[in-house]
Amino acid sequence: MHTSPGELAQALKQEGYMIDLETATTLFLGLYLKKPCLIEGPAGVGKTHLAIALAKAERRKLIRLQCYEGLDITKALYDWNYAKQLLRLQLAKTDDWEKIKLNLFSEEFLLARPLLESIRSEEPVLLLIDELDKSDEEFESFLLELLAEQQVTIPELGTITSKANPIVILTSNNSRDFSDALRRRCIHIYLTYPTLEREMSILSSQVPDLTEQLVQEVCEFVAKVRKLPLQKLPSVSESIDFACALKALQKDKVNYSNLMGLLNVLLKYPKDIVKLEERLKKWDSELKVRMD
Amino acid sequence: MNGWDFLRLINGLRQASIMISSEDVRDVQICLDRFPMIAEKQIMKALLIRRPQDLIMFESVWRIIFAANLLGTADDAEDSTRVINIEDKNSPSIGGQGVGRGFGGISLSNSEGHDVSKDLTLKINPAKLEVLMNKIGAFDDLVKAVLADMNYYTWINSYELDYQRGSLTEEEWYAHLNLRSSIIDEIRHQVLALQVHKENSWQPLARQHFLVKPLSNLTDLEKSLVKSSIRKWTRKLAVRPGQRWKPTTRRGLIDIARIVRQSVQCNGLIFKLSFHQRIPRAPELIVLCDVSNSMAPFVEFLIFLISCFKRCYRKIRVCFFIETVWDVSDFIWDEDFEDIRQKITSWGHKISLGYSDYGAAFKELAENYLVNVSARGTIVILGDGKNNYRSPQKEYIAQISERVKQIFWLNPLNAEEWNDPDNIMKHYQPFYRKAYRCRSAEDLLKIVRDVF
C-alpha cells in the first residue's frame, strides 16, 4: 500500500505508466477507501494500460473480464459443468435413489468465471472489467453487489464474500452512460489525451531509440491533429505507432509534404485521412511562407 | 475548510443535481482527516464527482462559496476581476485599445509582434448586471447580452475576418477559439454566481442541468449527453415488451426446445412449461417536422430519437416541411447526425421561403403522401404551430386524422404560447390525440415514455 499519491505515481512510472498527479491522487484515494475505480475516456488513452501497470505496481495477479454485448453471468461469474453432472449421473448406474442422490450443485461441478475467480482468490488480485459500456444494462445491474459488498450470490450455493479484497478497475469508452447506482459505488477517473510534455515523456520511455527532436516533432504534430474535427482522434498508442513507423522508415523529422502512407498509422477512418491530407497541404504552405 | 462551508458545499452540489450520499460525505471526511497534505478541493473533487460534466458544476459551486468576496457590492467591482493568462502572439486588427463598456470589456491591446504572455481581463459590474437581469429572464440570453455589451462579438468577428484572409495561422486560430470558450465560461460563471447570490438559492445552478435546459441552447458536450440519454431511453423501450401482440392463444405456443433445455439444468425434471415469445406487431410511424429556422435545433434531436427507434417500427417515413413537404427518409438514415442542422438549413433555403404554412403542408400530405399510410400508422408532428397568419385549412388535417390511428403533436413552445394569435394549435386541437411540450431533454423523456 502506497502512502501518498506521489509514491503511487512513482510506482506506476517504474512499471512504464506515466500518470499525472491529479489522476494519481484520485486513484490513491480510491485504493485507500477500497472502492472500485471507473476509468472513462476516449479509446487509446491508456485506461487498460493503467490497470495493468497498477496490478504490477501493487504486486497483484491480474484477472481480466472483457465485456461485450450479450455478456451474461454464465460467462462472467459462474456456470454449472453440465457434461460432468451427466457423467456423474451415468456413473451411478443404479435405480436406487438413495445411492445416486448426489448434490449435483456443489462446488465440484462449478465452473468459476473471472468474477468468481477474483472473489474466491486467496492471493491479492486486481479485477479488470474492461469496456463495461459494451455490456448490457442488465449486466451492469448485476455488478452492483460485487462492487458495493465485494460479494456475489449464487442461488444454489449462497453468498460468497471476497477473501483478499480485490482491487476492481472498470474501464469505459463512453459509448453509453452508466446508471447512477453504478457510478455511486465507484471512484471516477476521466483520462484524456496527455499534455505535450507528458506525451513526450511517454514516447521517450516507450520508444527509447528516438531522438529528442523527433519525439518533440511527433508530439507537436499529433497535438495539432487532435485539434481537427475528426471522427477518431489519434490516441497515445497511435502516436507511439506513428513514431515507430517514422523510425522504421528512417525519417528523422516530420515533413508535412512527405507523410503519405504514414497517416494510416495515425488515423483509422478514410474520411479523417482525407481531411488531414488537405490540412497538411495548408500547413506545409504556411510553413513555407514563414520560412521565406 | 470549516464545517459550515463544507455543509454549504455539499448542499450546493446536491441542489445542482449532483448525487452525494451520506457515505460519500463520510468518505470525504475520512480522507480530509487522514490526508491533510492533499488539497481539500482535490479530495472533494475526486470523491464526489462521478461524471465529467459535473466538474463544471463543482467548479461553479466551489467558486461561489469560496470566492464569495468576488461577488460583493459594486464597490468591489475591481476585485470581481478574473484574469485569464493567454499566450497571444499576434492579436489582430483592433490593437491598442480596450474595447467594451459597462462591464469593463476585454483588453485587446496588440502585442505588436512581441512574443509575450498577456492578461485578458474580464470585469463584471454587478450593478449593471442586475439591471440586465431584471430585463432579461433567460440565462443564455443574459450571457449573450453581457458579451454583446463587452463588444465580444465585434472582437470575434475581427478574428474571423483575419482567419479568412489568411493573416492568422491555424495554431493562432485554435488558440483564439480556446480563449473564446474561456471567456464565455467565465462570463457564464459570473452571471450564474450573481443569480445565485440574488435569488439566495441554488436554483439557477439546477436550471443549468442538461435535462432541463432548452434543446436550442445546449453546448456540444450537453448535446452529446442528451443524445446518450435518448439512446438509453430507447434501448430500455426496445427490450420492454409491447402491447400489440399477434392474435394467438392466451400464452402462445409451447416451446419444446426450451423446455428440454431447462429440464436438463434441473436433473431432467420438468418444472414449468415454456412458451414461444410472442412478437409485437411493428407499427408504422410518420414523422412530420417543421424545419423553419426556429425549429432546426429541435428537429435535430427528434430525428436522432427516431433513428434510435428505427428497428422497433415496420416502416418509418420522415418528412420535412415549411410551406411545402419533402420526404427525406432515405437521406436521413444514411447521414451523419453531426451536421444535420446545417443540412436542414440549406435544404430549407433551397426549397422554401422560410415561412411555415401548416395548412398548405397538410394539404400536400393529404393529397400526395396519405395513400401510402396504413390505418395502423401514427403521425408525429413536430412544430411550433406558428402559421404566419395563414389559413389553417382544417379539412386536410381532419382527413389525415380519420385515415391514421393517431396523431401526436410535439411543440417546443411553452403551453401558454400555444394560444398566441398566429398559432394554429387551438384550431387543430380536435384532430390530434395529445400535444406535448418538447423544449428540453426532460420533455423528450416524457414523450418517449408516453408516445413510443
Automatic annotation (TrEMBL), chain A:
Pfam families associated with the record: AAA
GO MF, one example: ATP binding
Gene3D superfamilies hit by this protein: P-loop containing nucleotide triphosphate hydrolases
Domain AAA+ ATPase residues, every copy: 33-195
Top-level taxonomic group: Bacteria
PANTHER family (alphabetical): MAGNESIUM-CHELATASE SUBUNIT CHLD, MOXR FAMILY PROTEIN
Name this polypeptide is given: ATPase family associated with various cellular activities (AAA)
Organism: Desulfosporosinus acididurans
UniProtKB/TrEMBL annotation, chain B:
Superkingdom of origin organism: Bacteria
Designated name of the protein: VWA domain containing CoxE-like protein
